[in-house]
Amino acid sequence: MKAVIAFLVLLVPFAAHGQLLKCTGKDGRVEYATQCPPGTQEQQTGIKSTREGPSGGGAATPQQKSIAEREADFRKRQMEGAEAQKKEEAKAAEMAQNRENCERARIYLKSLQEGQRISQIDPRTGERVYLEDPARPAEIARAQRAVDSNCK
Q1: Which of 17, 33, 57, 67 is the most exposed place for a label (fewest CB within 10 A)?
Q2: What are the Cα distances from residue 19, in Å, to 30, 31, 36, 113?
Q3: Domains identified in the chain, total number
Q4: Per-residue pLDDT tens for 38-83?
């Protein structure tokens, strides 16, 4: 008798390889089960159960990853996230630098166009030299190119 009970207990997991049914009661309550209780209306759902039994015969279930594999995947995702964040920060810093260069170029161009006195340091002597009137149009053209290249 004990052998029969043990055999039946071993067959129970194989019974899980059934179809899922929609069971609707008289009061409109809906349940999903492999077997509908008495007094309920049975409807096919088309969903098959793919539970593995003790023999591991189910082919549709994915293998569980080991703890080491999951840890490696986690670390990989962390590193990818950190790299993406670094790229975003570098891009933001570059955009801020471009905005600053654009603003400086516009201010310099505006000061040239308004006729303000512009001084520069002579690299040979180290003395302050003021921009002469004949050189102003060339300097305005150079400043305009700087604005065009920095302010896109």
Answers
A1: 67
A2: 16, 14, 11, 83
A3: 2
A4: 888 888 877 776 655 445 444 444 678 889 999 999 999 999 999 9
Alpha-carbon gap, residue 131 to 113, rounded angstroms: 13
Domain that holds residue 71: 67-120+129-150
- Who contacts 60 (Cβ-Cβ below 8 Å, separation ≥6)? 50
Q: What share of the chain is helix, strand, coil (3-state, %, to 5)?
A: 50, 15, 30
Letter string b/e over residues 92-113, b meaning 16 or more CB atoms within 10 A of that residue's CB:
eeeeeeeeeebeebeebbeebe
Judge whether 118 and 112 are in contact, CB under 8 Å: yes
Q: CA–CA separation, 19 vs 11, rounded Å?
A: 17
